[in-house]
């Protein structure tokens, strides 16, 4: 059912054509520059996710400045967080056309622009556009490449690498909260947002560190003819497609006619350029522009073809039943994690635990243990005798059990224990890219994970208002936990059922063939 980890990061070619020299795995896989990718992703999580978790500081300033309702003002931060995740499928298109590095650099500029323009806001609706949409889209353009690049650079220690990089969210929540609080106190919220925009330009540096994995072939010899290199590329593509198909993921047919047409256009332009060397410099300049435009057109068409086939083609991601179940799970999972942060203050107030909670807040317990949970679950998942899928499911079962039992706890100690378990088990967020890559393969990771975080974004947008509506109707927080927990359990059941169905189908097919 899963793509083999051994198929990731290797160059496939015909040894007889290139020579007797064996083809070795890329030395940057699981080492070398791979750890710079982890550092880059870690900083991205600090600057994006950490900043979004610290928006409560700015939310109070906006309430005082614009004198609008809490509900309307809260939509600014909700839009920013939601759009960051919801635009995932469209960011996959940019990655297919431009690559992770260029997408992340453009996103860093857009995110910084959103922060800076928000410093001149005249009302809340202005912030919807500048901060909610502009900064949100920019954040999404950096966040998805940061996750995808870690998946591409790691093979044996993917879970640990993802766990280390995503701990930036927890560290960022502490660092950015302290930074924004200091900036708002010393310079006012407008200057604080302007300064934060300048800080966000470091996202461009993080994007620049996302060096493409296969910029150069590991075995490269100048005397190899063009036909041999084309044969090697064709073999690599066919090998990758067979690997994905054999593991129950995707099978994709290359558009040969379109590629042939694109190559003919570039060849014609190249021939014209060679034949026109004796012409004037102005004509040659025009030919270079034509060649650049032609190459850009080819890149865009190929990227769009890959993106379109992943979502709507015959080899669509949605033909993978386990992946569809994973999407359904993602729609319910994120809101269940957010709801305790919404209602914990009410629980503390109801049981007169404010004095103890002020010493060590329950939400801080979740945040701190959450950091360790990501790393520890990553280490466990990378053990050769442990299945990442099983660790992922066990963490989900632990989290949904805590969500359902939390309203029953009435003392600070019992609440602290349950909150610690929530923080630890929710560390499975670092395993989501690993599980996604196992389901669809490295080639489709950007588009597939874009869909998953889009589902999480929808859950993040609708979850808090849903919990608020339930509380308004019942005047009890308990039902929010119970209903969200039951919906979460439905998503987990989907994850359990689909793998069993896929295992059954080959057996049924083999029995039918035996009867024939």
UniProtKB/TrEMBL annotation:
Record GO terms (molecular function): monocarboxylic acid transmembrane transporter activity
GO CC annotation: membrane
Keyword annotations of the record: Membrane, Transmembrane, Transmembrane helix
Keyword Secreted found: no
Lipid bilayer topology: Multi-pass membrane protein
Name of the protein in its database record: MOT14 protein
Gene name of the encoded protein: Slc16a14
Domain (Major facilitator superfamily (MFS) profile) ranges: 37-503
Top-level taxon of origin: Eukaryota
Gene source species: Glareola pratincola (Collared pratincole)
Main subcellular location of this protein, as a coarse class: membrane
Localisation per UniProt entry: Membrane
Transmembrane intervals: 33-55, 75-96, 103-121, 127-148, 160-180, 192-214, 322-342, 362-380, 387-406, 412-435, 447-467, 479-497
Family matches, as InterPro entries: MFS, MFS_dom, MFS_trans_sf, Proton-linked_MCT
